[in-house]
Amino acid sequence: MSEITQTNGKQVTSVDFKAVTARYAADMERVEKDIHRHFASDVAMIPAVSGYLISGGGKRIRPLLLIASSRLCGYTGATRHITMSVVAEYIHAATLLHDDVVDEADLRRGAASANAKYGNEASVLVGDFLFAKSFELMSEDGDVRVIRVISGATKCLAEGEVLQLYNTCNVEVSEEAYMDTIYRKTGALIEACCRSGSILGGASSEKEQALALYGKNIGTAFQLVDDVLDYIGEAKSWGKPIGADLADGKVTLPLITTLKQCTEAERETIAGAIEGDDDVKEKLARVMPILEKYNALSHTMDTAREHADEAKNALASAFEPSEHLEALSSIADYIVSRSV
């Protein structure tokens, strides 16, 4: 499933993601069916907006992690891992709907965003429905431990989004503050998926903590790779405009890394690009040479790989080798080798 190659003198692991997911294909197919079944409503706008967003692509990383984690921990049941996977994807989808409204985004995965197609009001309200539906499904399942884990992650998501908004155009934001923000807005839910899988499997506290650490680290790695792709991804495959973060005034790790090293003149150039009304291509033209001068993108990727390695090490220290351990390790490798 994984192959190690050399790129620019560094080891890079390429992953056949389809091979990783193949062993969970039956479960993932059931997740897909239940995702569509549970957002059914006699309020026609709800399935219309939900279906439009959810059918627009995505690799269902969160459900996959929950299922693989539960199997790693010995879960043999037939339904609960499916229900909790739907819950995780609904919470993720709700945040996407809300994020696109906040960011005034026009594109999502290469197509018109839900807010561009249906309007901001519909996107926000359907996002609220998906949050509500996810908590209804959890309450029907009735596992207080899982409810506590996922509700805590949902609170973290909201806090992370507020922190990101608060630090818009803030060139003084520290790396520590930024890493905390991306844990809350991305890592917390991924961590909750892995921890929930361990709870379903009746894992020991040691194994639950190992999976939580794995999830936290790959969630962080996932966001850091996104930070890099926002600057150098290909718009067609990336599915949204290159430079969107810069255009929105989001000070991500590549910028933070640069701002710690650059000259005062370069700092002013970056601040002007973040705060100005220039076309995004002009912003990128001004900022990219400075990022390249200080190797900010390669540093960010190196940091992402460090987190992926830490994730794999956490699992290796707590679990015996198995096909599910191999799958989770391959997912960590995939996250830092992806181009979308």
List keywords for this structure.
340 residues; Farnesyl Diphosphate Synthase; two-stranded antiparallel sheet; mainly alpha
Written overview of the protein:
It is a single chain. With 340 residues, this protein is mainly α. The protein has a single domain, classed as Orthogonal Bundle (Farnesyl Diphosphate Synthase), CATH 1.10.600. It has 17 helices and 4 strands. The chain has helices spanning 17-22, 25-38, 45-54, 61-72, 80-102, 114-118, 120-141, 144-166, 175-200, 205-232, 235-238, 244-247, 253-259, 264-275, 280-293, 296-316, 323-335, and strands at 2-7, 10-15, 107-108, 111-112. The strands form 2 sheets. The chain has a two-stranded antiparallel sheet. Strands 3-4 form a two-stranded antiparallel ribbon. A hairpin with a 2-residue loop joins β1 and β2. α9 crosses α10 (205-232).
